[in-house]
Amino acid sequence: MASGPGFSDEKNDTLCESESTVYVHNPHLDGMKDDFLYHFNLGTSTHNLPAMFGDVKFVCVGGSPWRMKSFIEYIAGELSLEDPKAEYPNICAGTDRYAMYKIGPVLSVSHGIGIPSIAIMLHELIKLLYHARCTDVTIIRIGTSGGLGLEPGTVVVTKQSVDATFLPRLEQVILGNTVVRSTDLHQGLAEELLQCSKDLGQFETVIGNTMCTMDFYEGQARLDGAFCSYTEKDKQDYLTKAYESGVRNIEMESSVFAAMCQLSGLKGAVVCATLLDRQKGDQLSSSHEVLHSYQQRPQILVGHLIKKMLQASASSKS
Amino acid sequence: MASGPGFSDEKNDTLCESESTVYVHNPHLDGMKDDFLYHFNLGTSTHNLPAMFGDVKFVCVGGSPWRMKSFIEYIAGELSLEDPKAEYPNICAGTDRYAMYKIGPVLSVSHGIGIPSIAIMLHELIKLLYHARCTDVTIIRIGTSGGLGLEPGTVVVTKQSVDATFLPRLEQVILGNTVVRSTDLHQGLAEELLQCSKDLGQFETVIGNTMCTMDFYEGQARLDGAFCSYTEKDKQDYLTKAYESGVRNIEMESSVFAAMCQLSGLKGAVVCATLLDRQKGDQLSSSHEVLHSYQQRPQILVGHLIKKMLQASASSKS
């Protein structure tokens, strides 16, 4: 698998025959006697991370622990790797902060809600992949979102993650100073996902910008929070501006996900189902069954991509 | 129980004989046919919220669902309300986003990690208390944190929640515009909690400012994240400045908790155990048992306060 621009490192390319390594960027780590990944309850002195995770090639992350368990069951069936009715143990069973499951080269991890929650998980995941000496890892967030100008159930693959002013950036405060990080995602991977949707022909998928907000209610112009100081017209004007700038869906994790993929050299994509059209309402009115079927769509799309990439990798080696 | 300044409403004081109502501030809510609290999987058309929650006087919230279940078991024993070995069902069992438990007048709810995660929970909790017509509700966050200049295990009751530049404010983006909200907490309640610690004489408790950050690693000047672009000296200089400004602990939820308490008229406090002294390290080196005993301390303190307030309320009525 060729690495896209910005996702390779000359030194490691030479050492590892073009395999792209997952990078931490922290000179302090090598001086640490051991590294305890607190929120995973895993550590370098208590676990053999290369043996447990060295073969990981795909990481799928999503907010809900239940959904990430159901994903590993689904992918096990898709890859014919195990009896799909088998039980998959939670690798992070010693903590209730995040849940983690693995089958073959696929790791599935929950990240909770919002930028701070997913950022902690990604810091520890990137260190885990580094300690395990993983190479050529692709990471995909599968989530749910509110849509803009799309039929509910449409899947959006993120081109750029933008903030609440529609700019493709993440402002992060380090030692009290604001640092701005880029939130572009891997275009080649996004296009491969779009092609997968065409292969499948089961549901609509589009590539568009994703607005990432710090709040679900006031931050997404909802009228149904505990507090609301604006009118229906203010809301519609804001969502129209978002649509005109290229935003097709709204969620709460993509910006820091994109920024940390760029920094670490992970090839990353964000694939979210839209559960409703926010220009038509704020609350979910579809039935439980319909919503459940929408939530399955990113899993189906990413399952197809993983199968296709593993087949391509196997045939290039044979 | 008398309401403190800023926590009463003239109209409701008259109607409810000095009882202080929980307020939403949203003119759109009354026009809604029903209100579905999506992340709790509870709604006004599917649940009798006044019957289920109308007697709630105390809400305790914390990041971990396990800890909030253990709190309800603990408080049930403390208040002699039920067999402490009984099973307490998760009221939000239909979702894995948040967990909720109740015993008598005490509600215990998990909120996940970070400002966005707790903000969603608080929006829906405030609406729940409003729909249930609760009055005189006290809400306390019981959590864990990194300490500054304190012996590990010390409990900090927050005076003000400050941001990463040590200012008592929360910047929130609404319709693309930044709104600044105050993060003061209820001083009388903080002092009552300090008095409870003196009554108990089991562990050290201080009142101080709490720094609330958006990130656990770079945002808290840790040297052990996946990325770190500063030195040990930069870290120490920053933490020293934080200490000098009055910060005694660092966590990730207090600012929006304080802001939403102020906006809704909930009497709020933040009570966190410090698990380590951040000026001496970043990773937790204490044993599992020691850390567990530190985590119990906010529960013990808040359990004592609830018992004391219920006894005072009973004797004032008799």
UniProtKB/TrEMBL annotation, chains A, B:
Molecular-function GO term, any one: uridine phosphorylase activity
UniProt keyword annotations, A-Z: Glycosyltransferase, Transferase
Domain Nucleoside phosphorylase as annotated: residue spans: 57-306
Entry superkingdom: Eukaryota
GO biological process, one term: uridine catabolic process
This enzyme's EC code(s): 2.4.2.3
GO cellular component: cytosol
Matching PANTHER family: URIDINE PHOSPHORYLASE, URIDINE PHOSPHORYLASE 1
Name assigned to this protein: Uridine phosphorylase
Gene name per UniProt: LOC120031356
